[in-house]
Amino acid sequence: MSKRLLLSSLLGGLSLTMAVGLLGSSAWLIAMASTQPPILVLEVAIVSVRFFGLSRGVFRYGERVMSHDAILRNQTQLQTHLYRGLERAVPLKERTGSSFFAGIIRDVEITQDRWLRIYIPWISAAISGLAGICAIYFLSPRAGTLIGSLFIASLIGIPMLTRRLSLHASNVSYVDETEIVSQISNISRGFLEAKIYGYSVSLQQKLRQTDIALARKESILDLGSGIGVALNILATSGAVIIGLATAIHNVSQGELGAVNIATLTLLPLMIFDGISTLPSAITLIGRIESAQKNIEGLAHQTPISLGTKIPETFEISLN
């Protein structure tokens, strides 16, 4: 893990933490303002709302710039390494032409989603969730323990379940997508010949069948993502109920001020919000692994030894 990726994960976590602080301070400010206290009592909360609101955007901007800079650097280095390796490798007939190099670019871009859409959001959600749970624990240790346990279970369990439900469909959909791209390329280049010799209809039917198969796999991926999102909503709702019930109990026992009921109730909404994007991203894990295997296969091409004759098909494909 590079320093840029680590820093972008930290900035993303700080951005979500600022969002948690913004919601908590806003809830306390609104609840306290309803009691009509002296304005000096609200000054700290007012400044906190401004600070958290501005800092959230600043950290978010920094995270986006840093993460995309790191990803683009990784793409450049990986593509350069692959191209230099292919220069010394014995080329294969089916791996020449523009479609081959377009596939390399596509696979490299897909592999970067592992960091950009899965690892960095997961680390950021963990950082902000820990900060929010610490704030809840400070107000109510019982609520902090219960909500913290639910958050950890959701942070680990929901991505694992989503991955299990969608891994096979994601792998197969990658193959179907590659096949569709190849078929469209072949139809576009040989449409006139297919029309003349009377096999254009069969090509279109084959393309339609592949598209239908891909749509079925996409529906399975949507189902896995939907289950993950539904579980996150249930976990968030459970955390809100726990926060509300615990806050009411603590207020009745004189252990907590009534103005903190809103804070304990609303904080879980933002704590669990960081997990909401993970299910849809986890459905890409199969495609990422398939693309990674393709890249590893290219990286381990056999170098050309001295005296090795380059196939004529490779020379023709370059022209």
- Report the end-to-end length measured between terminal Cα atoms: 40 Å
Describe the sheet with the most strands: none
Q: H/E order of the elements?
A: HHHHHHHHHH
Strand tally, please?
A: 0
Low-confidence runs (pLDDT<50, min 5 residues)?
Answer: 304-319
Rounded mean pLDDT score: 82
Instruction: Tally the helices.
Output: 10
- The percent range for strand residues is under 5%
Helix and strand composition category: mainly alpha
What is the molecular shape? elongated
Helix content: over 70%
Cα-atom radius of gyration: 27 Å
Summarize the structure.
With 319 residues, this protein is mainly α. The chain has helices at residues 3-33, 39-87, 98-139, 141-189, 191-197, 200-252, 260-271, 278-282, 285-299, 312-318. The radius of gyration is 27 Å and the shape is elongated.
Tell me the layout of helices and strands.
Elements: H1 3-33, H2 39-87, H3 98-139, H4 141-189, H5 191-197, H6 200-252, H7 260-271, H8 278-282, H9 285-299, H10 312-318
Characterize the structure shown:
Helix content is 85%, strand content 0%. The protein is mostly helical. α2 runs antiparallel to α3 and α3 (98-139) runs antiparallel to α7.
Looking at this protein, list some descriptive labels.
319 residues, 10 helices, 0% strand, mainly alpha, disordered C terminus, 85% helix, elongated
